[in-house]
Amino acid sequence: MSGSACVLWWLVLGIVLGWLASWLIGRMLRTEMPATKVVETIVERPVERIVEKIVEVPVERIIETVVERPIEKIIDRPVDNPALLAQVASLSTAAALVPTLRAQLASAEAAVASLRAAQWPVVNIAAAKAAGFLITGDDDLKVVEGIGPKIEQLLHGAGIRRFSELAQVPVQRLREVLDAAGPHYRITDPSTWPEQGLLCARNNWVELKALQDSLTAGRR
Question: How far apart, in whole angstroms, are the C-alpha atoms of residue 195 and residue 215?
């Protein structure tokens, strides 16, 4: 703003303020307005408006023009970093391989499960019946002394479904399953269950019968 424009602006402002002061004084004389209100009207309000127009608005515009817009323009610019672009491309290629790797992992897990199952013979239901056990399959855990229908359901829910699986489960794990089921099951002793499960999985039904004859509610 030039010097003449500044002088003209202040001259206009002085005329307006003078007229406003004259009008307010005349109104005060007619309505007996308190002098404090005259001061508030003449001084405080114009000053606030001047500060708002001359200081606040230009500052906001300066911030928007100098800081905010250049940052947005910088962000909008394409990345010119070959190393970073190469790394992003490598990660994208690796991410595309994830479904294939998951399928290969599932196939490997199935193969391992098949090999583990192959080391155990097929349960001989006829031999079990000859030894005095009426079973329906290799998941009929009720044949084990100390396991009833409800505990069998608990074991099945914990992933222990077959005789071969019961034979490999640590006794501590069996206790955890029972403890989680409530106080009614905590008095049950599973210490011989893996041993009995092993005899079932190997079709050693005569040995199982002899062992159970020496147990009391599954305990030695």
Answer: 12
Phi/psi at 81 (5° precision)? -140, 95
Query: pTM of the entire structure?
Result: 0.49
Q: What is the pLDDT along the chain (220 residues), one digit of tens a residue?
A: 555 555 566 666 777 777 776 776 666 565 554 544 544 544 444 544 543 454 444 545 544 554 455 544 544 556 678 888 888 888 888 888 888 888 888 877 666 655 565 578 899 999 999 999 999 999 999 999 999 999 999 999 999 999 999 999 999 999 999 999 999 998 999 999 999 999 999 999 999 999 999 988 767 7
216: phi then psi, degrees, rounded to nearest 5: -125, 110
Give Cα separations from 202 to 60, 167, 210 (angstroms).
84, 10, 15
